[in-house]
């Protein structure tokens, strides 16, 4: 029997596919850009982005989730007019928030450079300042479409944004390095050129999504004309919006601020120990560029799945369809773990060739970068799990719980990193320990609260154990196969590509044999009937 494909999974797949495409584009342009900037330039670039991400969190990141939740809640109640009113209110708030964040970054750039003890940091920060305003507006439009369970505009705008970002970033970096050759701040000016791509990419995405919105405006007005529900009082709507946004802002700020606090602690404590400033900045570049960017791939998928699941979970919560809600939660977590766990194992066992192939021009700290990836890849599993469980709690209207969990985890995380940096010689490894334990604490607390608040328990065998067992077998085969191929005259790129293809096929085979997904869950996936037929043949 054929079963209608679950719209949540389709939309999640669209957004996840866009996330993968944008991450791949990101890798393509970050490779030449990273090689152009060098370790020190990457350090300046990554520190500026850490600060920028905190500013975005305070001004922008909450809008997609908040607007999505508010819009989907009203649509579930058949109140399209109030859903549109929530969007307009959010748009006004985004303008104010964007102006504030722009002012802080632009006019406070010199002060932030002094605080972070990173020479030249003010240059990229001033380029990133107007980007916060643009992204604030962009987030509201994306949230509006996501609230309608339509992830296509967000997905397409992300791809356009990243393509423009890639081209402009590389070209602007190259031009800046040539124009300012011989300048004492050449690496910082190169990093500033790289950040220009972020601004132009965001502007491109905003133009696209605004045009998409206006093309649907006539239809939206017709739908609202038939809405006879009572119009919400604007002050009450603003109050509800702020009540929805603040927990999201706080929880996401804690996520983002943990990275920049780590940068701050690492820079200041290593300086106090007498380590050269250029070495400190270079190590920050290795950690934030070569390690963090790689583990962000499965995290991007988790973020996409969480964003797509939120409106559906909100709708089922409003309609009190608890059993269906549990099924949706199980499905989205299972898909996330079935992707994140093999990614973590693959990144670990193939760390050396991955780093060498992607960053051929960065050789000084190559062994450090490879070791970070080997031992820290598990972090992507914990970040994926913490991201999706946070979104589930928010969708179940448990807005404060993720805030409390994130705050408690952040306090413990900061203490761990501070103590390790202050009283041990671990250096950059202290940051790695903190980076892995932070999402683990959040995910653990979230899972405890899911069981306590809504009675949800994880199917540990199918969500964790079977994907892990399949991934370990896959990893062992991949490691052995790559080692054998390197004994032949086959080029490294070909050996690596063939190894990855075999590893992916083997993992898929093992997942099917172990029945990680049920027949019904296969049918809920895009092209589910074809996948199910293949699974039945393999089993």
Describe this structure as you would to a colleague.
The protein is mainly alpha-helical and 539 residues long. It has three domains: 39-227, no CATH class; 256-272 and 280-458, no CATH class; 459-539, no CATH class. Helices cover 85% and strands 0% of the residues. The chain contains 19 helices and no strands. The protein has helices at 7-76, 80-107, 109-116, 122-147, 152-179, 186-215, 217-225, 234-272, 277-318, 322-349, 351-358, 366-376, 379-395, 400-423, 428-454, 460-485, 492-513, 519-524, 528-538. It is globular. Mean pLDDT is 84; it is low at 1-5.
Largest sheet: none
> Helix and strand succession?
HHHHHHHHHHHHHHHHHHH
Report, as a whole number of angstroms, the end-to-end distance: 19 Å
Low-confidence stretches: 1-5
How many helices? The count is 19
Q: How many structural domains are formed by the residues?
A: 3
Fraction of helical residues? over 70%
Mean pLDDT: 84
Number of strands: 0
Task: Indicate the radius of gyration in whole angstroms.
Answer: 23 Å
Shape: globular
- Secondary-structure content class: mainly alpha
Strand content: under 5%
Sum up the structure in keywords.
539 residues, mainly alpha, 19 helices, 85% helix, disordered N terminus
Compact summary:
With 539 residues, this protein is mainly alpha-helical. 85% of the residues lie in helices and 0% in strands. Helix 8 runs antiparallel to helix 9 and helix 16 (460-485) runs antiparallel to helix 17.
